[in-house]
Amino acid sequence: MKIGILGLGLIGGSLGLDLRSQGHHLLGVSRRESTCQKALDIGSVDQASVDLKFLASADVIFICTPIGLIVPQVEQLMVYLPMKAIITDVGSVKAPIVEAVSPLWQNFIGGHPMAGNTDVGIEAAQRNLFVNRPYVLTPIETTPNRAITILEEIVRSLGSIIYHCQPEKHDRAVSWISHLPVMISASLTATCLSETDPEIFQLAQNLASSGFRDTSRVGAGNPELGVMMAQYNHQALLHSLQQYRQNLDEFIDLIEQEKWQILEDKLKLNQQQRPKFL
Amino acid sequence: MKIGILGLGLIGGSLGLDLRSQGHHLLGVSRRESTCQKALDIGSVDQASVDLKFLASADVIFICTPIGLIVPQVEQLMVYLPMKAIITDVGSVKAPIVEAVSPLWQNFIGGHPMAGNTDVGIEAAQRNLFVNRPYVLTPIETTPNRAITILEEIVRSLGSIIYHCQPEKHDRAVSWISHLPVMISASLTATCLSETDPEIFQLAQNLASSGFRDTSRVGAGNPELGVMMAQYNHQALLHSLQQYRQNLDEFIDLIEQEKWQILEDKLKLNQQQRPKFL
């Protein structure tokens, strides 16, 4: 099969490596000539170009650009494509993308591979990045079965665990376990920076250990990505943040009122329930 | 030197292993006979007993019990000790302990080795647990120099990095980087458990990855320890929680009002400043 990849970063590059090793013919497109060359060098694609037209012959195209570029890129790309071409994306928010693209292209299926690491760019591309990782597909009522079957087969060949759901349910779910953690983690570092006593501030820096490190990690990731999550998953994230604030207020109240037994019960429930998410 | 350890868990047991290997004579006391035997078996102490009197001949005594038992244990122990005996503790909160013990025992120095792991008990004791880890000492104005010098020498021999500060400053510093993370991390799991749509709840569990795992980790630790932090570091933790809540509200406002540039600037500042704490 001819598979096109638009956006040759960590995800696009890694998809290319795996799919090419299975005998597919990979066509890559990047805005930069140097990225095209790197993708060729590491064997992520068979051919590469900076020209969108280059993907005209692909049977399936993965849009692997940053979220904000997905819809405009599909709009530009579709004029070159035959109607049967299947388009999918890898954006971490689904409802606004599916809403915008579905009326334009029937054979579109929103996708979200839950894989990655802290590195970015084609240099970070690696084999088997998606093995045993969740890969969410969000077809809608009007999505042709043929397109779903073909895309599922490709995703299954990556070793991913496939989940189907409505785009809105995806966005709610990731707002709890992915986007909310970014914001509460970011607030931790921001709060520690507010200490005004220089001796305590220095001491806090010297004493910070794995507890601070882990809890503050995701909030100090790529700032552009953090903003895009908030922009594109706006309502779900705000809902999660407001629920979080209520829960935090409960903890504060319990501590203020010295209700130690209830606090202990809440912490015990957390300890019991958290493994369900791991 | 004769060194006593009261409380043979992870910290007490590990202290014994290191100090005994340096030629000190280690006396251990635990409430349980079986723990005494295990401490002897792994070579953490030279002699062990369930009787506090057993520590009467020690030059320096480390109190390694849970926080809530430190003051009562010192009160019971002191009747057997000569005045020159040096007492220290390893509790993660310092001001209430130092306030309570200092009037009772002049040669007392509060201490806090910032080391540990997720395992507990004498079975988890290990060599070199304190190497390159911070070890805070909180002597006060009336603490004799001789006691400080002797304790510092022992702590330095563990390979720890020694910090001196007032007990209150210690408690403020750890409230930022250790106790606050526990509560905001616990609130994350508690919030995710509040989702009422079973499909979204299941999906969130299936999709949760390293972001959720790391951010929720310290909040799902030992519930009794979480409560003790809140009890003993009450005021500092409440102050930190209120500052955190203000910061979180700022993040929520920025997202609600779609002030993306300011949000990005805040996330960038975090990304720049967080390494200072690592």
UniProtKB/TrEMBL annotation, chains A, B:
<keyword id="KW-0560">Oxidoreductase</keyword>
<dbReference type="GO" id="GO:0008977">
    <property type="term" value="F:prephenate dehydrogenase (NAD+) activity"/>
</dbReference>
<dbReference type="InterPro" id="IPR003099">
    <property type="entry name" value="Prephen_DH"/>
</dbReference>
<dbReference type="InterPro" id="IPR046825">
    <property type="entry name" value="PDH_C"/>
</dbReference>
<dbReference type="Pfam" id="PF20463">
    <property type="entry name" value="PDH_C"/>
</dbReference>
<dbReference type="InterPro" id="IPR008927">
    <property type="entry name" value="6-PGluconate_DH-like_C_sf"/>
</dbReference>
<protein>
    <submittedName>
        <fullName>Prephenate dehydrogenase</fullName>
    </submittedName>
</protein>
<comment type="similarity">
    <text>Belongs to the prephenate/arogenate dehydrogenase family.</text>
</comment>
<dbReference type="GO" id="GO:0070403">
    <property type="term" value="F:NAD+ binding"/>
</dbReference>
<dbReference type="InterPro" id="IPR046826">
    <property type="entry name" value="PDH_N"/>
</dbReference>
<dbReference type="GO" id="GO:0004665">
    <property type="term" value="F:prephenate dehydrogenase (NADP+) activity"/>
</dbReference>
<dbReference type="InterPro" id="IPR036291">
    <property type="entry name" value="NAD(P)-bd_dom_sf"/>
</dbReference>
<dbReference type="InterPro" id="IPR050812">
    <property type="entry name" value="Preph/Arog_dehydrog"/>
</dbReference>
<dbReference type="GO" id="GO:0006571">
    <property type="term" value="P:tyrosine biosynthetic process"/>
</dbReference>
<dbReference type="Pfam" id="PF02153">
    <property type="entry name" value="PDH_N"/>
</dbReference>
<feature type="domain" description="Prephenate/arogenate dehydrogenase">
    <location>
        <begin position="1"/>
        <end position="278"/>
    </location>
</feature>
